[in-house]
Amino acid sequence: MTAPEQPGQQANGRLRGRVAVVTGASQGLGVALARRLGAEGADVALLARRADRLRELASELGGSTVALPIPCDVTDPQSVRSAFQDIGERCGRIDLLVNNAAVIGMALLEEATDEAILEMVSTNLLGSMYCARAAIPLLRAAGGGHIINISSRSVELARPYLSVYSATKGGLETFSRTLAAELRPHAIRVSSIRVGPLATEPAVSTNETAAAVTQEWVARGGPAPEPPAPPESVADVVVFIATARPGARIPVVHLEPQ
Question: Which of 160, 162, 188, 248 could be disulfide-bonded to 244 (CB atoms 3.0-4.6 Å)?
């Protein structure tokens, strides 16, 4: 398999001719993923609710790749169907789906609101299911491909205030493993990437809720917060998985800080 590029290296078009879909593409990690996939030569369908931000990103990427801004609410099955129908009509296939759209909330379970629980489960778990379901026929049309689900290190680091969020990501990984077995006959591989804090997110010190939660974690004997990783490191892993040799299975990648 081709090793990921080191920071500062130039992309070399390893995904030229492929069609990639990135959800949650209007901000943060989604933007970094779209930029990298475009730099590697892929045509990129950008999915998110913020149409204005998608248009800005598509305009930025348009000089070197085909970028399609497609407004989509991943929590709405009909919105997902419409978005992937649009991709199918315009591209005819999908080679790579990156389920990146997610929301995080910090609260003790007994204090969590109905709305917060529903939003996290709908976005982080159901949204990935809806998008994978809609992508499968287009992945088959490409003769196979990849579904990459962005998970979280919270799955392995049990921390208070993150029970609902961690549960959605744990469910996402179980979904990934079973879907991989289901899609193996179609040469569609499914992987998860466990990601910790990223440099695109607000620093803990600037978020009063996060700072208070972190203090409680440490007071309870938990580990101190990990240093944030550059989002480009996640993009490195996505390209690494997407360019793996046929037959190689990469169920889970743990992306840990140095």
Answer: 248
